[in-house]
Amino acid sequence: MLFNLKRYTSAFFNILATASFKSPAPAPVLVVDQVASDDIRGALKHIPSSILPVRGELQYISPRIISLMIRRNFEKAKQFSYGSKNFLTSLFRFSWNNYADSIVAHVGPKIIITFIDNYQPFYTMSERNPGIIFIAVQNGTRTLDEILPINSKNKNPAFLFCFGEHDRDLYSQKGYDRSRITVAGSLRQSLWKRSAGSPNRKYDVCIISEWRASTFRSVDPENPGFREACHRIYTYMARLIDEEGIKCCFAINKDCPELRAYIEPIFGNSVFIAVPESSINTYDLLNSSKLAVSVASTTGREAIAVGCRSLIYDTTDGHRYYDGEKKLESIHLLDPSYDKFKTRVLKILAQSDEEYDEEQGTACRYAISTLDKTSSADLLYDFVKTELEKKQYNSVIGNTQFAAFS
Q1: What pTM does this model have?
Q2: C-alpha separations of 330 from 7, 312, 360, 362, 364 in Å
Q3: Contacts from 171-177 at CB under 8 Å and sequence distance 24+?
């Protein structure tokens, strides 16, 4: 009993530490997960939206939300023959599903979107909220094993915006309706493209950092061979730079002293690494490079959409990230030897655009959409705008603003 008291007390104070006593603003669009929500909002432009955080960083416990949760519990409790004590207790059982559905009831969205396409609760939300359109946007490379199987009984399956035809094929194998899958490319890359400059290939190779501190400190049982594969590609590139004098940059997604301490003994001053304060991001470096090399990073595929050539060097145990798809084989290198790596890199760098497209173009276009006249962000915006107009939310597309409830 004392243990339970301590546990509930700890949970109570954790909630208070992240609590908001206001309610989210009513809006036609609800974005599930605060992480990467800026990308979704960037694509939606002026269409109003609210956010449902799901990682504990913010929890709405306003009187409005609490009352909705109790009301939902009351409606559920009426279906059972509880005693008075159990009936009262049931009113204050606050589950995640109840909380999320109460947020939905308050915000009143017509469309719910997430940029975390492998988040299971998002798909169960769609089952409980028929009449609302659900859209999942792919944010990372997926293997077949990583894709969540769809519930075939769900009468309100989510729409999916995915990278390429390869992903549409994979998701279809898990029961997703192909007619509800839009091949759109990378949302984040398409947002960058709005203000990107012309390609400036001042680097021969962009090395994609795949730093994961926990993996590099010890062997990750979920990613066998990953650390060795990354170390191999770094040492091979350092050797190739020394032997051939090629110009390279190193793309890191965040500045980490531990990462710099790891790579500096390998590369010394032979590669360019943007300082943390620089406005240069990974896409800028890809736009300045002829070839990107990676092990398993999503950026290795996004490089193709940027217009950069890509070599995915998957020498992990069992080639975990290459799923055996023959249509993608040509952009992968599975042999761990240095000679094979060197030969492949130098060949790609020496090829003309026509030669590279003839050899790799089909695989590249299968891996990720490289739409020239539109973008993932524009496709998502047009889809949302069209669906809102169908639901007579025309005023939302104009200047009408929604006032937040308190």
Answers
A1: 0.88
A2: 54, 9, 6, 9, 9
A3: 171/147, 173/144, 173/147, 174/144, 174/147, 174/148, 174/149, 174/150, 175/149, 175/150, 176/150
Instruction: Name the CATH superfamily, with its identifier, for domain 195-367.
Output: Glycogen Phosphorylase B; (3.40.50.2000)
pLDDT average, residue stretch 157-179:
94
The domain 18-190+375-397 having CATH identifier 3.40.50: the answer here is: yes
pLDDT tens digits, 240-273: 999 999 999 999 876 677 888 888 999 999 999 8
Domain boundaries, the chain: 18-190+375-397, 195-367
Tens-place pLDDT, residues 107-131: 999 999 999 999 999 999 999 999 9
Q: What is the residue type of 23?
A: S
Q: Fold match between 18-190+375-397 and 195-367? A: yes
